[in-house]
Design brief:
alpha+beta; Calcium-transporting ATPase, transmembrane domain; 5 domains; nine-stranded mixed beta sheet; nine-stranded antiparallel beta sheet; 38 helices; membrane; lipid transport; nucleotide-binding; EC 7.6.2.1
């Protein structure tokens, strides 16, 4: 509808007011976006309410009243027409002042009003009727807008300029920008551009040539710059920002969720360009969790979430772990339970099934129930808590945390240790160690010579010309060769320098800021970071890189810019990467390539030193890379680019065709240098692995790295000793190939095995038992290219086939499944976070702590728990033996030998402290256990707690229980209460002496526990003298000598047998005692 004079005045007043607001809106929005947003919305809301009220009063009139209103307000209408005509003139003849006025008007509208400025020259009543008809359309749009206002926070403005609608929104949630067309009579070129100043965002500049005849709409969830570039009358090239995603009409196909992390299959089909355009999606188009975007921005579509992500699918559900000793104790408890039933039945059979025999049967079961060690579980759990406390208090392994107190004994029975590589055996820090040029080699001690040669080369400026680099027949000097090698290393990579953002107020240029800030290099491979860091240390630094160029800082401080023409990334199949760059100063085009020696030997020109030097560096544990180059002419590059582009457009066999085109370029390359990079090992990794190997622990390394890297680390870490050979399992893809390769491997079972994950999967699919049998005979096994799920499956496979205890150690989230699948999981707190540490049973700070954790704490925990279990079982067996003898002597009566209080006190206050003090016992010191790791081999046999030792303690219990009871029957006089006094006192003394007999290394707390328990029993004799004991008999010498005789007969023979055994068949550890 047309504007009345009141509405026009209100609009002008408010526009001036809102213009003042918007001038400070940008700064205030940054400082307090939420508070300022509320204030602006409030002001705009009041303005909108006033305008809409003015509009609604007029909208309620019918068409006839509207015409009459215009007749009456003819002067006001002419004023409005003059205003609109002036705006039209301003649009046709734009000047800076006019543009500023237009911007002020537009900004004054604000983001929450809907003014409709209708530019019409009203001259006749017919035109008034036409304007009134337009009112109805505007009224409909207003109602539609009011409905949308409830669903969207952003409000829309409309402005008709020369018959064209320009819709845009200043909402913080939505940008709508639509250009229909520019309509004008006469010379339309006069209207060149409209500059819209956004109150909260960047400038938007749209030129007429960009927008003529083209309609575009863009949406965004944030404010992003929008730049329309001149691409012709019917095409607009929009800046690729987040707003583009909302306008794409298409669909993406992704394969079903699977565990494989090395592949992805999908397609993207777009249907908004007038036709269907389908592009393939591969692993190169994906970004996984925790990916660092080194520079720029990345737009993406979430494909998998929650349980469908690769990381979650490769993580197994945690389970409660039960130690082998607990299973053995459960087995012995079942045997003891059967013994209770059998003994009760035997007693009942001898007594005869007369009267209420089932009552007698049940009473016998209750009397003999002390055979079942109910308190054993409590004592074991308390002991495990004590072992965990000892581990965390050990100063030799600081920072160790025990997260599972149920399996510390498992550390003493480990046969297979499965370890990750990166971050576990190594620090994941690459250090440049060697640069070999064929005739000269540079080590860290001689890197200053490299710096001198580099300065000389740049000062002469000779190597900077393209002519000097294209003279292969001239023998180049060392200076030139060093320059070419260092420049190749500084250019051939995928490294991006990242500078930390600073809030400095000075307006320094980007180059000045980069010169004062320390660059942090981001790359997918730490090897490349090491190489680029080394080039920076010698004077050739990478200061900037984007998608199309990179800049190097030479020793003089000047920056040299290179244009990136093509990049060929590293893959496990090609084992090399390449890059084509053009130096802007000289225009020289150079193809650089670096890769593994096994593939580069056939690519570079003939030489007689490369293979030998690669072997020398490999024996030193260095990771080698061969660097070469090839200078291309402009014609050669254009020919290659054409063929390369055609190959990438192929729908079928695209990868094969692209590889063929690239291989055509990889011919007769000039060999520049050979580099050696060391992956720094964790502290004391080599002696730790040596200790574990001498302890009889077989070590498997499971890593996701490539085969060459895994083999190199296996040699440098001494996982494979120098005298052992390495057998690399050939790639197999079928059952026949796996069968042939296994037969070949069978003849070299004494060698260390290196196998890839896909070959391992084929072998396990068809020859699982045969492969595990052969692999277990190897001194070491290295599995490379191994997924997290495969790591867990290997652990389960070893547990299933060998029945041995396994331990897994890792430091990253990809090791969690392996750690949880193992019998004992150890996590290292490293650079990859604390996922492994939190999911593991034991958390350590470095790999070298594993040796002490297994050889010392594992040994002590297992030995102590075994002794504690056997003694608790002995404590229940001896009193049950005495009960059985007592019942059999007194006509198989189901009567308790001791009162209930004494029975409870026997298992608690009288013997609890000495028995539990066995958790302080140890057979050898920590120094001996670390010095002689061979002692650990006996623990894996499980001889400390077995059926042999169990039945030995059963015989001891029967002997001592029989001696105490029959001795008491022989020596008691006339009162039965004397039997209770003699037998119970002898029983307590026997238990205290047996604890002393079992102890191998005394601790002062053990002596305190013995004395304290004996004192409690003596005190109870005084307290209970009127209940269970005869006071006069306790004070007599008869009581004393009878108890001493019975106790001596029950214990002294056992001491003699123990002495004779240590004399003629001593255990292995006793030979090392001082």
């Amino acid at each position: 509808m047309p504007l009345t004079q009141d509405a026009l005045n209100l609009y002008t007043e408010r526009s001036n007011y809102q213009t003042k607001i918007h001038r400070s809106a940008t700064k205030q929005w940054i400082e307090a976006p939420h508070l300022h947003g509320k204030r602006v919305r409030k002001d705009f809301g009041l303005f909108k309410e006033e305008i809409l009220n003015s509009f609604q009063q007029t909208q309620q009139m019918k068409l006839q009243k509207t015409v009459e209103l215009f007749h009456q307000k003819q002067g006001e209408t002419e004023t409005a027409v003059d205003f609109l005509t002036r705006m039209r003139k301003l649009g046709r003849n734009t000047t800076p002042d006019d543009n500023s006025l237009i911007c002020a008007c537009i900004n004054g509208l604000g983001p929450e009003i809907l003014p409709f400025i209708i530019q019409k020259q009203v001259q006749t009543m017919a035109e008034l009727h036409q304007a009134a008809a337009l009112v109805e359309e505007v009224d409909f749009q207003l109602k539609h807008f009011q409905e949308c206002h409830h669903n969207h926070e952003g409000l829309t403005q409309a402005m008709e300029v020369e018959g064209a609608f320009v819709l845009y929104s200043h909402s913080m949630e939505l940008y709508w920008l639509r250009y229909n067309q520019f309509v004008g009579d006469g010379d339309s070129s006069a209207f060149q551009s409209v500059h819209l100043q956004q109150p909260y965002g960047p400038d938007i500049e749209i030129t007429k040539e960009d927008c003529t005849g083209h309609i575009q709409k863009r949406m965004s969830t944030r404010l992003w710059p929008l730049v329309a570039r001149n691409k012709g009358a019917s095409e607009i090239n929009w800046y690729q920002g987040k707003f583009d995603l909302h306008e794409i009409t298409g669909q993406a196909y992704a394969e079903k969720p699977q565990k494989d992390i090395h592949s992805f299959v999908g397609t993207f089909q777009r249907m908004d360009d007038g036709g269907k355009c389908e592009d393939p999606l591969s692993i190169e188009n994906t970004l996984w969790a925790n990916t660092v975007v080194a520079s720029g921005t990345a737009l993406g579509l979430v494909v998998y979430t929650g349980s469908e992500t690769r990381s979650v699918m490769n993580t197994s559900a945690p389970k409660s772990k039960v130690g082998l000793l607990d299973l053995e104790v459960n087995t012995l408890t079942k045997v003891l339970f059967l013994s209770v039933l059998v003994l009760s039945i035997v007693m009942m059979v001898i007594k005869g099934f007369q009267g209420p025999w089932y009552r007698y049967m049940f009473r016998f079961v209750l009397l003999f129930s002390y055979i079942i060690p109910i308190s054993l579980r409590v004592n074991l759990d308390m002991g495990k808590v004590a072992y965990s406390w000892f581990i965390q208090r050990d100063k030799e392994v600081p920072g160790t945390v025990v997260r599972s107190t149920t399996i510390p004994e498992e550390l003493g029975r480990i046969t297979y240790l499965l370890s990750d590589k990166t971050g576990t055996l190594t620090q994941n820090e690459m250090v440049f160690k060697r640069l070999h040029l064929g005739t000269v080699s540079f080590s860290p001690e001689t890197m200053d010579e490299v710096m001198a040669h580099l300065k000389t080369a740049f000062s002469q400026q000779a190597p900077l010309t393209s002519k000097s680099s294209t003279l292969p027949k001239v023998r180049r000097t060392v200076v030139t060769r060093v320059y070419e090698a260092v420049k190749a290393l500084a250019l051939c990579h995928n490294v991006t320098p990242v500078y930390e953002e600073t809030d400095t107020e000075n307006q320094d240029t980007e180059a000045d800021q980069q010169s004062t800030q320390k660059a942090v290099y981001q790359a997918s491979s730490p090897d490349e970071v090491a190489l680029v860091s080394w080039t920076e240390s010698v004077g050739l630094a990478l200061v900037k890189r984007d998608l199309t160029s990179m800049q190097l800082s030479i020793p003089s401080g000047r920056h040299v810019r290179y244009e990136i023409l093509q990049i060929f990334p590293f893959t496990s199949e090609t084992k090399r990467m390449g890059i084509i760059v053009r130096e802007e100063e000289t225009g020289e085009i150079t193809f650089y390539m670096k890769g593994a020696d096994v593939v580069m030997i056939s690519i570079v020109q003939y030489n007689d030193w490369l293979e030998e030097e690669c072997g020398n560096m490999a024996r030193e544990g260095l990771r080698t890379l061969v660097v070469a180059k090839k200078t291309l002419s402009e014609d050669q590059y254009k020919d290659f680019e054409s063929r390369y582009h055609q190959a990438k457009l192929s729908v079928q066999d695209r990868a094969t065709k692209v590889a063929a085109v690239v291989e055509s370029l990889e011919r007769d390359l000039e060999l520049l240098c050979l580099t050696g990079v060391e992956d720094k090992l964790q502290d004391n990794v080599r002696p730790t692995l040596e200790l574990l190997r001498n302890a009889g622990i077989r070590i498997w390394m499971l890593t996701g790295d490539k085969l060459e890297t895994a083999t190199c680390i296996a040699s440098s870490s001494r996982l494979v000793s120098k005298v052992q050979s390495i057998y690399v399992f050939r790639n197999v893809s079928s059952r026949e190939e796996a069968h042939l390769e296994l037969n070949t491997f069978r003849k070299k079972s004494d060698s260390a095995l290196v196998i890839k994950g896909d070959s391992l999967e084929i072998c396990l699919k068809y020859y699982e038992h045969e492969f595990v049998e052969l692999a277990c005979q190897c001194p070491a096994v290295v599995v490379c290219r191994c997924s997290p799920t495969q790591k867990a499956e290997i652990v389960k496979l070893l547990r299933l086939h060998t029945k041995k205890r396994t331990c897994a150690i890792g430091d990253g989230g990809n090791d969690v499944s392996m750690i949880q699948a193992a019998d004992a999981g150890i996590g290292i707190v490293g650079k990859e976070g604390k996922q492994a540490s939190l999911a593991a049973d034991f958390s350590i700070t470095q790999f070298s702590h594993v040796a002490r954790l297994l050889l010392v704490h594992g040994r002590n925990s297992y030995k102590r728990s075994a002794s504690l279990s056997q003694f608790v079982i002995h404590r229940g067996l001896i009193i049950s033996t005495m009960q059985a003898i007592f019942s059999s002597v007194f006509y198989f009566a189901s009567i308790a030998l001791f009162p209930g209080f004494l029975m409870v006190g026997y298992a608690t206050i009288y013997t609890m402290y000495p028995v539990f003090s066995l958790v302080l016992d140890k057979d050898v010191s920590a120094e001996i256990a670390m010095t002689y790791p061979e002692l650990y081999k006996d623990l894996t046999k499980g001889r400390s707690l077995s059926f042999k030792t169990f039945f030995l303690w059963v015989l001891i219990s029967l002997y001592q229980g029989g001696i105490i009871m029959y001795g008491a029957f022989l020596l008691f006089d006339e009162d039965f209460i004397h039997v209770v006094s003699i037998t119970f006192t002898s029983l307590i003394l026997t238990e205290l002496l047996m604890v002393a007999l079992t102890i191998r290394t005394w601790h002062w707390l053990m002596a305190v526990a013995e004395i304290f328990s004996f004192g409690i029993y003596v005190a109870s004799l005084v307290v209970l003298k009127n209940f269970y004991f005869d006071e006069d008999f306790l004070k007599s010498w008869d009581f004393v000598w009878k108890v001493l005789v019975i106790t001596s007969v029950s214990c002294i023979p056992l001491y003699i047998l123990k002495y004779l055994r240590r004399k003629f068949s001593p255990p292995s550890y006793s030979k090392l005692q001082p």
